[in-house]
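Quick one - first record:
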Amino acid sequence: MPPPPLSESDNESVGDDYAAWQLAKALKTLDASSDETAHAQAARRVAKWEQVLRGKLDASLLHGSRAPLQGTPVWATLEVVTGGFATGGLCAGGPLLEHENALLANIPEALHGSGRLALNHWFLTEAGWGQLQEWLDSGAYHVRHPEEAALLTVAWLTGNNQGHAAHAILEEIAPWFEQLRFYPEPAPTPSRSAVEFSFQDVKSTITKLLAARPHRAILAQREAVQVWAPFYDQMMGLLQETVVEDWPCRHYPAGWTDRVRHLLQSYSALRLNHTLCGRPDDAGGSFAQARNFLERCSTVPEQLTGKDVGRLRLLLKRYVTKHGLPNSETVRQQRERQMLDVSAPLYHNLAKIAAERLGPYATDDGMEDISSLKLPATPAEASQHDVPPGTEIPVPVQRRLARCEINTLDSFVQQGLISSADMLAEYLPRFTAELQAAEMTSPSLRRLYSSLYRAFRKRRSLLLVNFQHQVQLDELPWAASLGSNRTCSSSEPSARHQPMRELAALTISFFPHTILPNKLLKEFSALAKTAGLDLPLVEEVAADIFMGDFTHKYLQAAKIAAFLLKGTLYEAYYDIDYAAVLSISDAKPSLMSRWLRRSAVTNDGTFASLCYARAGNSSASHSVAANGVVIEQQQILTTQNLAVLFSRLDLMDVLVEKLPQLARQSFTWICQRQQMKISHHHAGLIMLKNTAYAWRQMLFYLALVSPDELKSFSAWMDDTVKQQSDEFQKRFHPVVAGFKHVVEGGRLNSYPHDGPATGAPQVFLGWSATPHWLMPTTAAKKA
C-alpha cells in the first residue's frame, strides 16, 4: 500500500495523513517483530512518529517550515524522520553521552550543575581552553553534529586575532549551553584525510565477520548427502536382498532380521543429532516408506498385503532407475560426486579465519593494505576451522574485508562497493569537504572546516513548502566565520573545475541509467560554488508536495538543453519546440500568476505553463499523478541536469567514446527492471517511473552519437529485445517501435499517448494520470 500524498493547502495541515500512516506502519512492524533488536528499533520508530504527531497537535511543530521547532534557531540540527518531518528532538541535545559523563567526572565540582551547561562553561575556562587548543593542534577529535565544532571555532578564531567574530558566536550559542553540545568527542588518533577512507573500521568488520552464520539450507543439504543418503542406500540394499524374480519379500537371508534391527536402532541416535534435513520425517517420501517397510518385514512380514508388496516393488524400481542397483559401482560413484559437491568449506568458517587475521589490527580506523588477509588458509588455520589447507578466501569474504580497507572514492565505485548514485551521495561529502577546506589558511583550520562540513552534510533535509530552501552551511554562525578565512585561489578556472568534472564523469559512467539524486546535487552545487562555476542544477521535485511552479534555474537548465539538443533525436522523440523554450522570458513570474496557475487553467508564458501545456494537464488538478506528469515534462525539457553537466563541464571531451556503451547499459537495466517480479501496484508505479527516467537518459546519450553509432545501437537493441521474455517483447513493442520511428526520421507527439491498443509507436513516459498502459499485468491490480 503506497503512503497517502502530503497535503499542501497550508502549513498547518502538511503531512497529517502521511505522518499517521507512518505511525500505523511502525506500530504494525512493532507488533510483528519477535527479535529483540528488531523490536527495539520498531519501538524507537513508533516513539519518533508519536513525537511528530504530538507536535502537530500542540502546535509546537510547524511542518513545511525551515524552522519547524518554534523558538529554535535554524542552525540547530533537528532530529528528522522519513519525509522530512521534525520530531522536536535536537541531535546535539538529549542525555549526556559516555564521553561527556567521563569529562564531567573530572571537572571542578564548582562547575557542576546541569551537566551540559557545566561542560560548555568548562571549555571557556583556562583548562578547557587548553583542551580545545590541543584538539585543534592534534586533530584528535570527532565532530558528529555541526554544533560540536562551535567552541573549536571560537578557540581557533581567538588564537588567530579574530576575537570579535569569536565573541559574536558565543553570544549566539550561549543561550543554548544547557541543552546543546558545542564541543567535540575526543578521538584516540587524529582524523585522516577524508579523500581516503574506509567503509568500516576494523573493529566493526571483525564483528560483522564473526556474526556470519552458516546457511541452514546448505547445512541441511550437507546433512542429507553425508548422513541420510548413505542410510537410505543401506535400507534399500537390505530390501533388495529379499527380491526373488523381481518381487521383494520372497526371501529373507540368514541374519537379515538382526541386521535390519541394528540399522533401525541406529536411526534414532542419528536423528537425535542430525535434525536439519526434513526428508526422514516426510511420511509420504521414499525414505520414510523404506524405513516402514523394513520395520514390517523384520517384525510382521506375514501382515504384508499384495498391495504393500507391489508398492515396495515400485519403490525399489524407482531407486534402481535413478541410482542403479543398491551397493553397485554406479551408486558408489554417484554418492562420491555428491559428497564432493557438499564438501566445500563453509562460508562462516572462512569468515572466522579472516576475522582472526584482522584481530591484531583491531582499531576504530581502517587498514592501509588488506592483501595479506586474502591469502589462502594456512595449515594451522585449516586445522582449527575445519577447512582444507590452501582453501582460497571466497569473494564474499574478500568484499567484507575490502570494506575496512582505506581507499579512494573512485576505487570504491570501480570495485562495486559503492553500487548506486544514492550510495555515492552518502560518501561524496568526504571528498567535497577536503576540496572546500583546501584553500583554508592553516592545517588546523582545514581539519576543522572539513569536519564541520561532513557533519553538516549528514543533516537530514526538512519537508519544505512555498519554495523555501534548506538551511545552508553559511547560516551557521561558526561556519560563516571559518569560511571567511579562505585564501584566494591562484589556480586556473579549468583546474578548479577538474574535480567536479571527474566526479560527474565517474557518476555518469557507472550509473548511467540514474538521474542524479538530490543529495548528490548538493555536493555538486557546493563544488561549483567553490570553483566559481554557474551551474543551474535542478533537484527532483516530489510530486506529493509540488507547489505548481518551478524556480528560475529550471528555465536556465532548459535553455542550456535547447542549445545542446536542438535538431537531435532527443528533440524529435519528445516532440520539443526548443524555439518556444528559448523565447520564455527570464523575468520571474508574479505571485498572482503562480496562484492562478494553481487554481485554474492559465498560460502566462512561463516555463511552468509550458510544462503544464505539454502535460495536457489542467493546473486545477493537483493529484500526485497529475503533478508527476507535469514534473516529468520539466525533467524532459531540462534533461534533469545532463545537458547542464555536459555543456558547462565539457563532459563530451571525457565521455564521447563511452556514449554508445552508456546507452547500452541503460537499456539493459531497463530490460531487467521491466521484467522483475512485481506483485504490488505501487511497486509497479515506481518501476515504470525509474525505467522511463533511464530511457530518457539513454536517449540523451544517443542524441550525441554519430549516425553510424546510432544505427549500430538500433541493431543491437533489436537483438537484445529478442533475447527477452515473450511477455516483455509484446508489452514493450510500442516503445521500441516509437524509438525506431524517430531513428528513421519521424517525430513522436508526446500527448495524447493512447497505449498499445492503437497499435501506433508510443513515447515512453513514467507518469500517467490514468492507468499506465505499460504496467505489468501482475502489478496492474491495486494492492
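second record:
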Amino acid sequence: MTETRIWRALALFWLLVLLLSAGWLVLNRAELARKLDTDLFALLPKNEHDPVAEQAMASMARTIEGKLIVLAGSTDRGAAERAADTLSAALGTLPVTAQQQEFDLASLRDFYAQYPGVLLTPADDQALQQSAQYWYGRALQNAYATVAPSGLAWQDDPFGTYGNWLAGLGDLSRVRPDGGRLWVEQDGKHYVVLMYALRGSAFSLKDQQIVAHGLDAAIARARADDAGISILRAGVVLHAARAAAQAEREMSTIGLGSLLGIVLLVLLVFRGWRALPLVALSILTGTVIALALTFAIYPRVHMLTLVFGASLIGVAVDYSLLLHSTSLGAQVSAGRRLERLLPSLLIATVFTTLAYLCLMLTPFPGLSQMAVFAATGIAAAWLSELIWYPRLAPARLEPGPLGQWLLRAFAGWPRFSGRAVLIGLLLVSPLLTAGLYKLERRDDIRALAGVDAQLMHEQIGIGKALGMPSPAQLYFVEGPTAEAVLEREAALTHALDALKAQGVLGGYQAVSRWLPSSAEQQRRLARSQLLRSPALLGKLAEEIGLPPSWVASRQQAPALLTPAQWLASPASLPARHLWLGQTPHGYASMVMLTGLSGAENAGILAKVKLPGVRWMDKSQEISGVLGRYRDRLALVLLAAYALTAIILWRRYRKHAWRVLAPSLIASVATLALFGWLGIPLQLLTVLTLLLLLGMGIDYGIFINEHPGEVRIRLAISLAAICTLLSFGLLAFSHTPALATFGIATLSGVGLAWLIAPCLRRPSPDIALFQPHPSA
C-alpha cells in the first residue's frame, strides 16, 4: 500500500469515527440528556479517608433531595389559607406528592407506650429523688385533670412521666397541626406549611422544568389574588432547575458568541469563504468526539462541563487558523505546508493537552470531566488537521482586507533584546511586587458555588421558621458497638444542653433522644423503682378504685427498647437518617444542630472534645481541601516550569528563555493584577496558570521556530483572539468559579500573546514558504 493510500485510508477512518460519534450522540440524545447532572454537590470532592463522613453526606442527600417545601404566610390567617389553597391546587397537577408532618404523635404514642419506664424527661429524672408522697399527690392530680398529656388513660400513665416525655417532643418541630393544616408562626405572620415529595429525581432536567415553572406560575396566581402574601420556597429541585437554566443560557451565549466571532474573524482575515469549511470541520470534530468520549466514560456528566466545553471552540480552532494563516499567499502544496509546520504543531499540542490533563490532579469530579473533554477535543482537532488538511485545504489563500492590514501592522511588531527585557522588568517590578504583596490566599467554597441569592434567602427563612438543622455543620459519634455510640451521644447531648442554655445554638437532633442506650434505660428503671412499689400503687388503687390486677401489671418492669426494634418501627422515621449504623470501624450516628449562626458559635462547638465525637463543618472542610490542593498544584506548576525549561533548552539552547518567558511573565502579572483588584488566589487560579503555561508555550514555540515570518505572528494572534473570545466570555459567567477562570484567562493569555512576539530570537524577515517549481 503506497503512502498516499495509507493517508487516504486514515482520512476515511477518521471520517468514520466522526460520523459514528455524531450518530451515537444523535441516536442516544434522550438517554444522554438524562445523564446530565445539575447537582452542585457532585462537583465537590469525596472524602476518601473518611467513609463515615461520606455515608453521612449520602444519608442526608437522600433525605433532603426529594423534598419540596412551600410556606404561604400573612398576618391574616384567612389570607394565608386562601393562598395555600391556590398553591395546593396548582401543585396538585405537578409530579409531586403532598406529605404531612414527618411524624404522627398518635403513632409515636402507641409505639413508645410499650416502654414507658425508660422514657423520662430530665425534670422527671430529677424528680425521682422525691418521696413516695410526692408521687402519690402527683398521680392524684393527674387523675382529676381534664386532659391527659399522653392521650392515654390515667391507669396507663398515672404519674404522667410518659405524657411529659411525649410533650417534650414538641420542641423538635415548630410546626403545629390545626384545622387539617400545618401551621408555623414567624415574624408576626401565620404560615401554612405545604410539604411535597418529588415522584421523580431532583436532578432530572424534565422534572426540574415542570416543577420549577409550575411553582412559579402558582406563586404568580397567589400573588395576583393578594399582593401582600408572603411565599417562601425550599428544595434541591429548585436550585438544580436554576443551575440548569443558567448553564443552558451560558452555553448558548459562550458557544454562539465564540462561534460567531470566529466566523466573522475568518471571513475578514481570509479573502472569500474557502478557509471557513476546514475551520468549521475542526471545531465540529473536536466538539463531537469530546462529547462522545465524555458521555461514554462518565455515568453522569455535569452541566458545567458542557459550559466549559462550549469555550473549547476557541482552542480547537487554533491549529486550523495557524495552518491557514501561514498559507496566505504561499504557492506550495498544502501537504508541504503541513510538513513544514508539523514539528511545531506537535510540540504545541502535547504541551496544551498535558496542561489540560493537569486538571485531573485535583479531587474534584467536575474538573476531571472538564480535563477529559478539553484534552480529547484538542487532540481530535489536531488529528483532523493532520489527516484532512492536505486533502481539503484550498490550494491558495489570499488575505482579506483585515488580513492585509494585520500583516502590515504585525510586520512592525517590536523585538526586544535580553537587556531591554531585563530593564523593562526592573521598571515594572514595583507594581508587580506590590500586587503580589496584596494578593490573598482564600479558598472559600461558598464563594465559588454560584447559588441563586433569592432562593437561598427563602431557604434560610424556611429553615428559621421550621427550625430545620444545618446540613453542613454537625457531629459524628462513633463507637465499637451501637450501645457505645448511644452512650457517647448522650454525653454529647449533655454538653450541648449547657451550650444551648448559653445561646450558642437553638437545639439539636439526636438518636439518643428517641432511643436511650441500654445502660441508660436500666439506670432509669432502677431509679424509677419507687414508681412500681406495691405500697404506692396499692394506695393509688384503693383511692381510685382499681383492681389488684392493675397493681400487679404496674409492678412489672417494662421491656428495654433495642436499636433493632426502634429501626423496624415507623416511630424511627423522624430520626432514622441520623443513624448511620454499621461502618468499617464499628457503628456511627449524627447529631444535627438547629439555630446555629455565626462563625464564633461554630468555633465554640468545634471545641467540644469527647471520646468518639467528631465535629464536622463541611464547608470548612472543602475549603481546606481547596487550600491544600492549591498549594500542591502550585508546587506542580513550579515543577512544570522547571521540566519545561529543561525540555526547551534541549531544542532551543540559549533561546529557550524566549519560549518560556511569555507564560512566566504573564502568570506573574496576572497574579499581581489579582492582588490589585482584590481577587483572592484560589485553586482555580493556579489551574488557570497551568493552562496558561501550555498556551503561552505554544505562542513561544511558533514564534521562535519561525521568528522572521510575519504570518506566524498573524497566526498566533488569531489563535489568541479566538481563545480570548471563548474562555474570556467565561468572565461573564454567573458561576463564580468559571468567572474567576475567565478573568485569569483574559489577563494571562492576552499578556502572553502580546509578549511572545516581542521576545522572538533575532532573525531577518523571511517568508516561511517560497514558491516551489513543483507547487
